[in-house]
From TrEMBL:
Protein name: Alpha-glucosidase
Keywords: Glycosidase, Hydrolase
Entry keyword annotation includes Hydrolase: yes
One of the Pfam families matching this protein, by short name: Alpha-amylase
PANTHER family: ALPHA-AMYLASE FAMILY MEMBER, NEUTRAL AND BASIC AMINO ACID TRANSPORT PROTEIN RBAT
Family: Belongs to the glycosyl hydrolase 13 family.
GO terms classed as biological process: oligosaccharide catabolic process
The Glycosyl hydrolase family 13 catalytic domain, residue ranges: 12-394
A GO MF label: alpha-amylase activity
Source organism: Bacillus salipaludis
The UniProt record lists the keyword Transcription: no
InterPro entries: GH, GH13_cat_dom, O16G_dom_2
Amino acid sequence: MTKWWKQSVFYEIYMPSFKDGNGDGIGDFAGISSKLDYLKDLGVNGLWLTPFYPSPKVDNGYDIADYYEIDSDYGTMADFEVFIKEAHQRGIRVIADLVLNHTSSAHPWFQESKSSKDHPKRDWYLWRNEPNNWESFFGGSAWEYDETTGQYYYHAFAKEQVDLNWTNPEVKKAMFDVMKFWLEKEVDGFRLDVINFLKVNDSYQDNPYVGEEQTHLYDKDQEGILTTIEEIAAFVHQYPDKFLVGEVGSEDLEILKRYSGLESLDVVFNFNIGSVETFDSERIFRGLVATEEAYREDQIPTLFFSSHDMSRFISRFGGDLDRAKLVAALMLTAKGVPFIYFGDEIGMRDWVTDDINKMKDVQGLMGYKLALESGKTSEEALRVANEKSRDKSRTPMQWDESEFVGFSDVPPWITVPDDALEVNVADQLDDPDSMLSFYKSLLGLRGEHASLQVGDYEFLRYEDGMISFGRTDGIEKVIVLLNFSDVVRVVDGLGENLEFLLSTKRNDLELGEGITVFENEALIIKEVLSR
Ligand code: GLC
């Protein structure tokens, strides 16, 4: 039987920003539960929740201080249980973000570890007498001096996110217990945060530099990591029907492809496609082809273009609505498991600030600090901070106009779109031409056509700015024509028995020889194979 996640479309919920249920201005489980009908109606059948465990939130919850509770900002365990039950009743599965690589420095494990060199938990973290040159991914040294014992501890991210020592079997056991706990709470799987960082090279050699950039040669993707990940996968998969998606922090397909498969993670995020910085249809196409060529039969790609860690794709790709629809069409019809980022379905834009005091993201704040230290002016530092800050895509879901916090603080180098205010659910719900309606149509189409869920490519082409592909399950073939160019195209030879399914530019189309695809049109048709 086809695994459920192969037929699913996931939706990422950034916990504090999706829906506030108790009026304190912070998203929570009660809020999410109240929007489950919206999500069902949208047509998604999987949710990925960013961390919801108690945390000082230096890195918004990716610094976990207690793996067995719900952060009070998000509600109670009872709220969580109601939410899971209600989601499951609607056929929506839920995966929890789990940070296995590091804990908050406030976690009792670390407090014990740092208390003395002889503490039994000393070895749960990575302590050294001297730092090496490894840099934190948020900037600055990855080593922090701790006065209590006069040693340095390792943190790949913020100094409040302390890396665990996964070569210690007690650490592994503690984390397996955590997974068991949440699996028994009926989560349907996990999104495993920075999972390729679990091990560092025990030679602790300095990382090399290419120009000013450090190459992270010894602090990620180390030998032995695949075995550890296979153990995690085997543990989780003892429970029937559980799903694992790994965040493998790399855009290199050669690295990404090591981490998924039958014995390993079910899928990993394909940053090789998803994190293209500016819009380039040919580059996206090349990413699809390269993935198709590199992956074995038991490996399935993921498709996403936004997340809580990056700029929203609509802003990144220039703000054009037609283009955004084309990208959405690609994401929901190409081969792979799609992950929609909350708010993209209504076309929410990036946010930037002209006031550093309003910035929350540790990565932006660190960028600001380092820029000032390197002699930049505060204006230049703010620009760096905005570039690095992930607050961009973390603003509250715009359910209606009142929730628009958007662009009041926009610095002069950002253009505010005219229709920014109209970007909200209330306005779009009943508008057949809205982004929201388009997403719904796409999700509906995907739900109705097995070939869009599990079909192989029959062809995958690129010509003059148009990506086209056919996907088939042997019974029917769905043909997707994505004309990213400003020129009308005519396509021949697509087969017989063609039927119109969906377009961004028209409601119907007579299909014969020579199909006209308008500029910037997404056109989806099907060929019935067995008649
Ligand atoms: C992942 C998360 C990111 C976080 C980092 C450290 O990349 O997606 O938000 O800052 O891990 O935990």
